[in-house]
Amino acid sequence: MGQDNELDKARKAINEIDVQMAELFEQRMQQCRDVAEYKKRNGLCIIDDTRERAKMENAGELIDDPEKREFYVLFQKHLMDLSKDYQRRIFKGMKIAYCGAPGAFAHIAAQKAFPEAETVPYSDFAGTYSACVNGDVDVAILPIENSFAGDVGTVLDLAYHGDLYINSILDMNITQNLLGVKGAELKDINTVISHPQAIRQSAEFLSRNSIAIKETNSTAHAAKAVSEMGDRTVGAIASEETASIYGLDVMARQINTSHQNQTRFAVFSRSMNSLKTPGHDTRFILVFAVRNEAGALAKALNTIGSHGYNMSYIHSRPAYGPDWNHYFFAELEGDVNGENGKELLRQMKTVCDNLRLVGSYRHQKI
To answer: HEC states along 46-102?
Structure first.
């Protein structure tokens, strides 16, 4: 009888703890909802690798008993998975604009970053950007740079002249493939259609096989065109996923010259992420034009350096003004939201004609 009383006592204690845990669970999930709403509003992905790693690394430190520690870490992992599932439910109904047609690399990036959201195709970069500005979609995903073919100048111009903010940069590995109609062989192809970036990335393969080129506005549109033409002599350069969408065969895989081929996609939204918890992979983007006087650019760069920020990327673009001035698109490593960052912006304004903080974010791979 004493053992039964002991068992009942333990079970009663567990029930009481479960009631407390249920209340705390509800409070925690409400905070997860608030996080999801913030991410949705600011165009942030549900998955935050930096946050998750830090959470799991520190989870065991909260438990004193070594025997129970590993189970608490496992409990935290399951709880984090539940939180992400709950956030995905909140993300349903979100609309993501991308440039191209289904199967384009931007479409693949959008699906990986926002798997629960609806993806909406647009025919050009400006239209994709404007869809977010006008509120037709919540987020616009556009490429800003390829590791082999270089920057995408049109998108940099939109970032400089427009009103949207970049709250995420997503790095995605790109593999180009030669696609053709069913039954076609490589020897049949004398012309390929694709986006200029894809053509540049595959230039050696095209030259080696004496294949002529024709440019279009996306790899997916190229695949769609080849499918509709039904011509064995015309191929498309696109993703392997695109082949299955448009009923094409993959005649040659990985035809891009460099196999270290990545495209960086910027996630644009109408509000800026303040990034309250910066990590070691925190970065931010400045676009600025310097005054038309001797040493103006040097002063701007020296200002950045004097505040201890490493510049991982800088590119100049014509500002299309009457004097043919240029603006600069710069990515810097570190936190811009602290006092050092605020002082940097104050000093940059004294040497720049135009300065805009486009966004702050954590570097991510998808």
So the answer is: CCCHHHHHHHHHHHHHHCCCHHHHHHHHHHHHHHHHHHHHHHHHHHCCCEEEEECCC
Q: What is the CA radius of gyration of the chain?
A: 25
309-348 per-residue burial string, b: 16 or more CB within 10 A, e: under 16: beeeeebebebeeeeeeebbbbbbbbbbbeeebeebbebb
What distance lies between CA 220 and its chain's CA centroid? 19
The burial of 119, by beta-carbon neighbours within 10 Å (0-12 exposed, 13-18 middle, 19 or more buried), is given as buried
Q: What is the rounded distance in angstroms from the CA atom of residue 283 to the CA atom of residue 302?
A: 18
- How would you classify the pairing of strands 177-180 and 352-365? unpaired
Encode pLDDT of 165-183 as tens digits: 998 888 888 889 999 999 9
Instruction: Output phi, psi for 237, to 5 deg.
Output: -100, 120
Q: Which two tokens stand for residue 287?
A: 């676009």
Element (H, E) at 106: helix 105-113
Q: Provide the whole-model pTM.
A: 0.72
